[in-house]
Amino acid sequence: MIKWILGLLIVVAAAAGGFWVSADKDMKALISHLPTDANVLFWSVEQRDAAFRTMDRIPILAKANIIATGDRVYPLPKGNPLTIGTDVDAYMKTQRTAGLVIVQDGKVRMEKYGLDFSAEGKWTSFSVAKSFTSTLVGAAIKDGYIKSIDDKVSAYIPDLKGSVYDDVTIKQLLTMTSGVKWNEDYEDPKSDVALFNKHKAENGMDVTVSYMRNLPREAPAGSKWVYKTGETNLIGVLVSSATNKTLSEYLSEKLWAPFGMEQNASWLLGATGHEISGCCIQASTRDYARFGLFMLAGAKVDGVGILPDDWIAPATSKQADIGIPGKGYGYQWWTYDDGSYAAQGIFGQGIFIDPKRNLVIASNSNWPRATDPNTVGAQREAFYKAVQAAVDAETNTASR
Q1: Among the listed residues 338, 354, 340, 349, the one whose alpha carbon sits nearest the alpha carbon of residue 391
Q2: In angstroms, what CA-CA distances link 14 with 4, 36, 59, 61, 386?
Q3: Is the pLDDT of residue 306 over 80?
């Protein structure tokens, strides 16, 4: 049905004024591979290749708010090429990588593109957006909109009162330890993550809140880690409710414009008009890398921090055990015991940040499956280690 409607709209547009002639190559690719399902989890590889760079240009699937940039652009000067002990082109082909930007000591050490993507294009973030959303919680505390992460969630989202979330704190949402039952299986059409965006909201209520308020508890709050995209969406509702601003406006105000992102970004909206805060920022690979640099610099703009002084350390270190040796979960960041941390999204999106090496690796991809930790996931982890080893080898050589 969606494909038929999109096709009809295209025919009407073509009749009105030569749509195909004026369309750019990305739009033509989208038209040639129109999604047949509203749920991205069940699109084909070809449909994702076309749509991941045009998500904010498919209003029949989702509308979007603009994240406006400002007049300044944070510089990304070129540095000396980084020699990595692996075949990067082969790695990108296996990962189906659209964009890869490695910045070390503030300089671009490697920048490569694939899948007919470029530095000018924007790619959807998926759960990389979670780390942006959690950062906005810190900003809202710094600005006085939120008192403490120890506050109960329902104090900021009244429609959650009377649900299992009465016992859940903001910190427990940030660390995914609410104890609320949830299924994040991306290949199960009956999982919560597949169903909650399709949910018909109760009158006057945000669609995520309407869905989440009816979930049962499976463990005491704070006792069990379970990854839940729906709860990041609740965090977004909480920030918007506290600040009385859209997430796009607040992100632009606190970070996107003042820090110096190069391009306007966009954030897809859910059925009731709120940003899908567990997902769906569209931005350039270079601007994702700039977010990593923002974190490396202590989340400061012109020397002034936008986050509480005691925010970054706990946010980016293990707050919850995820059952994987050497890794953990912070405030919507994946953490490593060596002090590095990452934002990660399904289908291969990521921002890896290593403070010890002053290193950021931003990548956008279209993996064959939403998540596959034993193949492409393990390859990406190995690539991160190879980059770290290359930086260490340079440092050791320079110190001799």
Answers
A1: 354
A2: 15, 21, 17, 20, 49
A3: yes
